[in-house]
């Protein structure tokens, strides 16, 4: 069922870009990613210092949840702008987007 989206007809060539990105979502995503990067550096330091495994695992779980939250924001933006635009373009574009969104949902739900 999974189809790769064909971007040969896209003016952007191989560089896919979002149709639109809400400035609030972009700013929040960048803040979240900076925080997550700091958390990961903290985990690296914990491993280097041979900290208690359970404490490290708790921090890893925190990073995973932060990434899930970031994914939800990006999925919202993708549905609101990119998917809506593809669906409005017509049946062929809509079908490709449906397949892409299904693939994203399956990957995101693992």
Explain briefly what this protein structure is:
The protein is mainly alpha-helical and 110 residues long. It has helices spanning 23-48, 53-89, 91-108.
How would the blueprint of this fold be written?
Elements: H1 23-48, H2 53-89, H3 91-108
Helix pairs in contact: 1-2, 2-3
CATH H-level superfamily title: Metal-sensitive repressor, helix protomer
Note poorly predicted spans: 1-14
**What is the name of the CATH topology?**
Methane Monooxygenase Hydroxylase, Chain G, domain 1
Cα end-to-end separation: 18 Å
Would you report the number of β strands?
Answer: 0
Domains (count): 1
Give the name of the CATH architecture: Up-down Bundle
Task: Provide an overview of this structure.
The protein is built from three helices and no strands. With 110 residues, the chain is an all-alpha fold. The protein has one domain: Methane Monooxygenase Hydroxylase, Chain G, domain 1, CATH 1.20.58.1000. Helix 1 runs antiparallel to helix 2 and helix 2 packs antiparallel against helix 3. The radius of gyration is 18 Å and the shape is elongated. The N terminus is likely disordered.
């Amino acid at each position: 069922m999974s189809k790769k989206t064909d971007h040969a007809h896209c003016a952007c060539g191989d560089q896919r870009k979002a149709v639109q990105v809400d400035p609030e979502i972009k700013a929040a995503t960048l803040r979240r990613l900076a925080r997550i990067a700091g958390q990961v550096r903290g985990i690296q330091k914990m491993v280097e210092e041979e900290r208690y495994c359970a404490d490290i695992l708790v921090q890893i779980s925190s990073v995973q949840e932060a990434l899930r939250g970031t994914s939800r924001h990006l999925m919202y933006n993708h549905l609101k702008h990119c998917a809506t635009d593809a669906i409005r373009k017509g049946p062929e574009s809509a079908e490709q987007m449906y397949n892409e969104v299904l693939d994203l949902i399956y990957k995101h739900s693992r």
